[in-house]
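Friendly challenge for the regulars: who can give me the structure tokens for this chain first? No prize, just bragging rights.
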Amino acid sequence: MFTQSGEWVIISRPRIRIDFFKSLRFLLFILIIIVGMIPSIVIMEGCSYFYRKDSVEEKLNNLSAQANILAYQLNEEYLKVPYDQAIDEEISSVSSALNTRVMIIDSDYKVVKDTYLLDNGKYMVSPIVINSINNKSTQTYDQKQKYMEVTSIIKSEDGDRLVGLVILYASTEDLESLVHSLNSKILLVEVICFIVLIVVSFYLSWILTRPFTKMTSSIDEMSDGFFTEDIEFKSYLETEQMAMAFNKMLSKMRSLDESRQEFVSNVSHELKTPITSMKVLADSLLVQEDVPIETYKEFMSDIADEIERENKIITDLLALVKLDKSSSDLNIAPVIINDLIELILKRLRPIAAKRNIELVFESFRPVTAEVDDVKLTLAISNLVENAIKYNVDNGYVHVSLNADHQYFYVKVSDSGIGIPEESIDHIYERFYRVDKSHSRQIGGTGLGLSITRNAVLMHRGAIKVYSRENEGTTFNVRIPILYQIEAGGKV
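First reply, four minutes later:
Bragging rights claimed.
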């Protein structure tokens, strides 16, 4: 195109190279041609074959009938003296009408009469003559030499002896000419059918693959960012199933995109809030003159609290990012789960003691499992710490450990404030808080349960929650004793 300055500007567009010979359209095109041509070729060739066969049989039968008539009319006297006007006229008539060579041979293999006048008086000893005299009438067709031959035996008047033989030779060039003409017409029809079939195949392959082309076009548009609407294809069951599967994936992508946007927004808000508070406190100190030492300490204490809160958010975010990585980052090793939970509770007992919350651990059996102790510690610590933070004064937190042959189970129950029913489905969302004002008072970041859930899922485990408002909450964690990788491994 031209620019305003009159210079040429070449705009290059990315092209998608499609190997046509590997496409479904080409395969359908070839398949339709094959399916269409094979029956037509079989039918055409069958027509030619049966036409030739029927024509040959008809001519052989006609020659045999004429040979039998002549053999019936001939007698032993004619074989000795081959002069009978009526019989000669009949032989000539048959020879002319059927365009055949008529030969009459006696029992001594001597040619009594030859309509072609070539072998009169000669002896003819050939396999067909010998077989016919010793056996019965025969029919022979030689397609390569283009002739047919029929024989009929001449019997004595009493019918007990064979006295001679009638042989009819006929050329099949006229028959072969008709068959060749028919084959030429069949070939022409096959060529026309092939051309028509190519056009029909191309059209049908284009029609049949058009839904897939539309689907590809829709997916290309979505890859450019236009994925606000679902795709619908009701042409075939397969395309409907593909569209349903793609829409399902698209829904997850939308949800993931919305979650990402919400996460970025929440992170920005959560990180900005402590900074805003610190700036307000610092500005308050700067605008005041002769600030009392007590006020200065109070403001600095508040700033230190906000810094600590900012540090907790950043620490939890880093932990969450690490847990979002693949399970190959796990450092799996045999760990005594009883000792791990005891260590966690020992660290958290001082926090529980401040509010006189009873922290109880109940172990039903020794459990050793293949886990990443750092990540599992983080998960269980968050559950127990939340149970303490969102508890009531003088309450309790009960932690139990049990196992079977396949899984071990950690149960964390508390007597706390509980979770409203409408919030249970959202508690694992990042930065989600049931009661934001209360959570800020106790220092929650809204990331603990998301971290816990990710850590449990990385161990191929599951987590469930049961809660009633103002009655308490129970978390049940189930994790395989033997770690199993995706591609197969330990069971």
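The first strand starts at residue 100 and ends at 106. Residues 325-480 form a domain with the Heat Shock Protein 90 fold (CATH 3.30.565.10). Your move, everyone else.
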